[in-house]
Write a sequence for this structure.
């Protein structure tokens, strides 16, 4: 049973600002720079620091991907911040292998490993509690249009999906 408290709380980072640049290697080995490489009009970026935040991340990304599966203008990125310097390279390699084994190969370009200093990353993305998942919805220019942290609630998911839908609306035929 998941004992993680359900939270829907805005992240204190500045809504309406450009997502801070993040350069990471995907599971396929491709170097991805966010928000620059976030092709499309809407991108969901989910940051996790601990394996225990995986179910939180999935609580947001699963329904989001399901809602927009057929839309090529919508992208989803899972970013695992593993901080090689703190956990050691052998544990970081095992985390990479675990993520690769649990992710379909077609999605390897959108699962990113960010091996930077965890404290620097926490400051850049306004991360207060690294045990939570942090969710950012970006527009095509990399501007943060919606953000939350923790486990999805029905209200939080409705807000995420409504915001993404409204961002796509002007382009629907």
């Amino acid at each position: 049973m998941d004992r993680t408290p359900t939270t829907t709380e805005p992240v204190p980072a500045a809504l309406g600002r450009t997502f801070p640049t993040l350069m990471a290697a995907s599971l396929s080995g491709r170097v991805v720079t966010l928000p620059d490489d976030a092709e499309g009009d809407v991108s969901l970026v989910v940051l996790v620091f601990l394996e225990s935040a995986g179910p939180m991340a999935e609580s947001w990304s699963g329904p989001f991907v399901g809602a927009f599966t057929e839309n090529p203008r919508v992208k989803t990125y899972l970013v695992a911040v593993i901080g090689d310097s703190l956990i050691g390279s052998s544990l970081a390699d095992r985390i990479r292998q675990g993520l690769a084994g649990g992710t379909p190969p077609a999605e390897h370009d959108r699962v990113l490993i960010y091996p930077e200093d965890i404290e620097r990353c926490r400051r850049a993305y306004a991360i207060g509690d690294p045990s939570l998942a942090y969710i950012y919805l970006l527009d095509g220019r990399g501007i943060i249009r919606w953000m939350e942290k923790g486990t999805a609630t029905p209200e939080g998911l409705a807000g995420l999906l409504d915001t993404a839908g409204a961002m796509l609306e002007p382009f629907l035929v």
Observations:
- Residues 90 and 100 are 15 Å apart (CA to CA).
- Confidence is low (pLDDT under 50) at residues 1-12.
- The chain has five helices and seven strands.
- The helical segments are 54-68, 84-87, 89-101, 118-124, 154-168.
